[in-house]
């Protein structure tokens, strides 16, 4: 797994995916999420992988432990690099996910890294408190989810850049902080609430950034990707 910005391939079908990917002449780190997977199924994962890209399969599993374990066992066979579940599913569910992933990983292949979503980057503290009835600050809720994720043996979490530094302090450098909600300065925020720039993410403790619309909606996606990458990698 490399540390390039992860491009979210949030497209409705395979045609748009390859129109987009064909603009690039280098291997990328891409994310296949619900929108695309629900339309194209596992075949899209195989086809994107054939082109040599690293893949984050973002299906955010959240169900009873046995169901998540079995689903992960199946997903493991796709040979992706990174997969996720919702930490709100609990420790037993996350342990089940890890067991399924280990059981399904083909002999001689590296198991995908497994991370858990803490609080979605589209959620504000007020929404969390009112709608989920969690009587904590958003940071404390995210830190709590990060600590139970670590307890379950997972490799890291999905969080916003705003919580990444605190998670690093509590859970250690090796524990991944994968941060979506990335925008270029002055860019449209859409439905995201806890946002940051690529250089802000680097300074504030992200391990990996996920960038969708700031690249995929750009007039020149290759140029937008280059800007994001330079800001992210700047020394
Ligand atoms: O798990 C994720 O990838 C995820 C978690 C989260 O808290 N927030 C979040 O935006 N994401 C995903 O990251 C991507 C962000 O896309 P943009 O907002 O277009 O950059 C989308 O594909 C989301 O599904």
TrEMBL record:
It catalyses: orotidine 5'-phosphate + H(+) = UMP + CO2. Transmembrane segments: none annotated. It comes from the Bacteria. SMART domains: OMPdecase (SM00934). Its EC number is 4.1.1.23. Gene3D superfamilies: Aldolase class I. GO terms for molecular function: orotidine-5'-phosphate decarboxylase activity. GO terms for biological process: 'de novo' pyrimidine nucleobase biosynthetic process; 'de novo' UMP biosynthetic process. Keywords: Decarboxylase, Lyase, Pyrimidine biosynthesis. The active site is at residues 58, 60, 63. One of its GO terms (cellular component) is cytosol. Substrate binds at residues 10, 31, 58-67, 121, 183, 192, 212-213. Catalyzes the decarboxylation of orotidine 5'-monophosphate (OMP) to uridine 5'-monophosphate (UMP). Homodimer. Belongs to the OMP decarboxylase family. Type 1 subfamily. This is Orotidine 5'-phosphate decarboxylase. The gene is pyrF.
């Amino acid at each position: 797994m490399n540390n390039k910005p992860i491009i979210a391939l949030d497209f409705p079908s395979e045609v748009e995916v390859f129109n987009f990917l064909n603009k690039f002449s280098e291997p990328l780190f891409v994310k296949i999420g619900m929108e695309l997977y629900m339309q194209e199924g596992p075949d899209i994962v195989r086809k994107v992988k054939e082109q040599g890209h690293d893949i984050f399969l973002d299906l955010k599993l959240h169900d009873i432990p046995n169901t998540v374990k079995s689903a992960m066992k199946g997903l493991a066979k796709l040979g992706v690099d990174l997969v996720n579940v919702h930490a709100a599913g609990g420790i037993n569910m996350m342990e089940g996910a890890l067991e399924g992933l280990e059981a399904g990983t083909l002999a001689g292949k590296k198991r995908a890294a497994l991370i858990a979503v803490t609080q979605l980057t589209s959620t504000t503290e007020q929404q969390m408190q009112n709608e989920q009835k969690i009587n904590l600050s958003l940071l404390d809720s995210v830190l709590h989810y990060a600590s139970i994720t670590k307890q379950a043996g997972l490799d890291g979490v999905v969080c916003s850049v705003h919580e990444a530094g605190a998670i690093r302090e509590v859970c250690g450098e090796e524990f991944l902080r994968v941060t979506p909600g990335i925008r270029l300065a002055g860019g449209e925020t859409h439905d995201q609430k806890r946002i940051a720039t690529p250089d802000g993410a680097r300074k504030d403790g992200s391990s990996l950034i996920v960038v969708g619309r700031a690249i995929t909606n750009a007039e020149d996606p290759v140029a937008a990707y280059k800007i994001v990458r330079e800001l992210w990698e700047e020394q």
